[in-house]
Write a structure and sequence with these properties.
The chain is of the alpha/beta class. The chain is 27% helix and 21% strand. It has nine helices and 21 strands. Helix 1 packs parallel to helix 7 (294-312) and helix 5 (151-163) runs parallel beside helix 6.
């Protein structure tokens, strides 16, 4: 794709959600000169793969937020979508404003606990300050527990131990294997070995039973973390890396009969919402059997925008086919592991590709802006 596309006067694409899929869709619509509006509750893209380093390295957070307005200008609207009027082809904002569409791309993403994600709207400068405040807390905490051993949890534990090797860091995970269950066993074993080499204490196959009673992300000396196996761990700070949820509030009412159990939208092979020719779902909110990753959201956006163009020019629609899993896990700036197209790869590939700067450059380039030094 690329280059202007001639469209009828009534064409107006609305993209709900400014995550990785949303900005990829917006950028492509912009390059094709197709009228569009990108709507997000925040004022900036959060490059959340960099969130964990922003939690331990002062100054890194400013590299992980990129203004929507500077990239999309009048095509960006800040607001919270609370419903979709299918009959009148409009999205309804919390403010009462109505934005009409001819085609709709839903990329509402997912939310989770800070610092990995944000579970409530935060302005860019306030969000940056939240990370700077967290860095100070981490610096001062002698004993830190990370709850959750998915990809975010293992990366978080590694970031803390890399930046502060003398701290006591414990990772608690409800399963025995670490990270995504679609990863090769050798990759998951490699993750475990890296963490142990760094001095992270692993408590696997155990679930924290008093999580709701614990203070998160700030020093609270001598906290007792209890597990379902009867273990008691004393810590001065707890960081939670579990509980990611699909953001479905924008569409759950309109598509009550097209929503999967986890809140994602049922889609066909063209990424159209089931039974809807002009509405697409991309990224985390699309019910596709593959890990929820920025890389996949970008691929979804390519297909969705291409299919909108194809539908306008009466061409056959493209299919989206999930490929073999590719996932890079940064284990601090000087280490990492992962797999590409089904093959195990080590730190000599992962460090230059991801671990060094967590690919913040890619988001700044995609948004057509220059990253701060």
């Amino acid at each position: 794709m690329g280059g202007a596309v001639s469209v009828d006067e009534g064409v107006h694409v609305v993209v709900v959600g400014g995550g990785f899929g949303g900005i990829a869709a917006g950028s492509q619509l912009k390059s094709c000169a197709i009228p569009f509006t990108l709507i997000d509750v925040k004022d900036a893209l959060h490059h959340n793969p960099g969130a964990l380093r922003a939690s331990v390295e002062s100054g890194f957070a400013k590299k992980t937020f990129i203004s929507f307005k500077e990239t999309f200008a009048e095509n960006f609207k800040q607001g919270n979508v609370i419903d979709i009027d299918l009959e009148n082809q409009a999205v309804i904002l919390e403010s009462g404003e109505v934005v009409h569409y001819s085609h709709l791309i839903l990329g509402t993403g997912s939310s989770g606990p800070f610092p990995g994600k944000f579970n409530k709207p935060v302005e860019m400068q306030n969000a940056i300050q939240m990370y700077e405040d967290l860095v100070k807390q981490v610096q001062s905490a002698p004993r830190i527990v990370v709850v959750g051993g998915g990809s975010a949890g293992v990366e978080m534990a590694a970031e803390v131990k890399t930046e502060f090797p003398d701290k006591e860091v414990t990772l608690i995970h409800s399963k025995i294997p670490l990270a995504d269950d679609q990863l090769l066993p050798s990759v998951r074993q490699g993750l475990k070995e890296i963490l142990l080499q760094k001095g992270v204490q692993l408590q696997l196959g155990q679930k924290v039973t008093n999580l709701n009673d614990l203070v998160m992300n700030e020093i609270n000396p001598d906290m007792k973390i209890l597990t379902d196996k009867g273990m008691e761990i004393i810590a001065d700070m707890v960081i939670c890396c579990t509980g990611i949820k699909i953001n479905s509030s924008a569409y759950s009412k309109a598509f009550y009969d097209r929503v999967a159990e986890n809140g994602a939208l049922l889609v066909n092979e063209h990424l159209q919402v089931s039974g809807m020719e002009n509405i697409y779902a991309i990224g985390d909110c699309a019910d596709i059997k593959e890990p929820k990753m920025a890389y996949h959201a970008g691929l979804h956006a390519d297909v969705a925008v291409d299919n909108i163009v194809r539908s306008l020019t009466k061409k056959p629609l493209k299919h989206y086919k999930p490929g073999s899993l590719s996932m890079l896990l940064s284990m601090g700036r000087n280490d990492g592991i992962g797999q590409l197209f089904g093959f195990h790869i080590g730190k000599f590939v992962v460090v230059p590709l991801k671990s060094k700067d967590l690919m913040v450059w890619k988001s700044w380039k995609g948004m057509g802006q220059t990253a701060p030094s």
